[in-house]
Amino acid sequence: MATCPHAERLIPLLHDGELTSPLRREIRSHLATCVPCTRALSILEREQELLGQMIDEEIEVIDFSHFWQGVEYRLHEPQPSWVVRLRLWIERWHLTRPLSAPAWAVAAVLLLTFGVLLQQKSATPPDLVQLPQTPQLPSPLAKSPPFPTPSSQSPSPPDRSWERSDLDNEFALVSNQAQIESLSSSDTVAVWNDPGNNSTVIWIGSDMSEGMP
Amino acid sequence: MSLSRIAPLGFTLALLWALQALAEEVELRVETVLATNAPVVTTTMTKKFDGSFNEDLKEQLERTFSYSSYQLVERVSRKVQWGKREDFALPGGRLLQIAPREFTNNRIALQIMLMEGSIPSPFMNASLLFPNHGTVLFAGRRYHDGVFIIRIGATVKE
Q1: Residue at B8 is within a domain
Q2: pLDDT tens for each residue of A125-151
Q3: Number of domains making up chain B
Q4: Which of A120, A182, A204 sits opposite B123 (nearest CB)?
Q5: Do residue A96 and residue A166 come from a single domain?
Q6: Residue of A154 and A92 predicted with greater confidence
Q7: B2 in a structural domain
Q8: Lower CB density within 10 Å: C or N end of chain A?
Q9: Cβ <8 Å between B130 and A196
């Protein structure tokens, strides 16, 4: 029996409409002269026809008379409570993905560790823009006694005086309200604290107006 | 109750706890006040405080400064996650950057930077610790005929 290389490769594609237009035209003109390809295409068409008949026969057997009633019933069917659905979901989950108790325990420990790390909140702050040539408060301030906490405040009246420590045109006060870890500025800075009203004021600028503390 | 039932329960609790830890944040409040020595005159009366001042802010300003009038220019409150930097635009083209660092021993650590200029350049950088619900005041920058007072507060829900 005569064969053609197109019969196996290209004729099924032609039958399924998978060929591009130029190739389809070429194969169509080839079909006019090639008996094996014409036979292969006929077989494919006959197979499809038989398959379609078989499906139609199967559908005719199915009883669709109660189809819409069934749809309506399912639409109005009362839903089980969320507890029942949750239990069913867990049971199904257990069946499909069984996890042993040690696996659960390991996952819980990992989560707890993750939570502890988050709780520490020791996240480094994002890099703020660095001050260009900003003079840090000189070391004498850093060596000053630690700032007392509010609980250790003495009930002294508000001290409205400036405790100046003239350090290269900067002066500062130790605060017992806010604890200053570091402070730098391109301008004159003064820190003032009033234990009486628990206020810490950071004054930036050499403009000492009348209303300042 | 068997171990196979306790373990998933423990996992769920740990998951909830981790999610709660993930969602923790700090509330930052920035109140900008313009203080002047010229009273704010309205049609009916002369006021010392102009704007919706809180009583505690009024009291703090009165006890700390001796300006003759205060005008509340802006009040902003935002919830920020730890370690994240938040920008606050201030009147007069200034910019305030606050990065909450940590919360330990009931004290909140903040990194605060103030910037100004058309291309904002920093003029103050501070690292502060203050009690939960506490505030700190920044002042001294001139604006029109007065001086800006910026009150920064931070609160952590415990």
Answers
A1: no
A2: 444 444 444 444 433 333 333 333 333
A3: 1
A4: A204
A5: no
A6: A92
A7: no
A8: N
A9: no
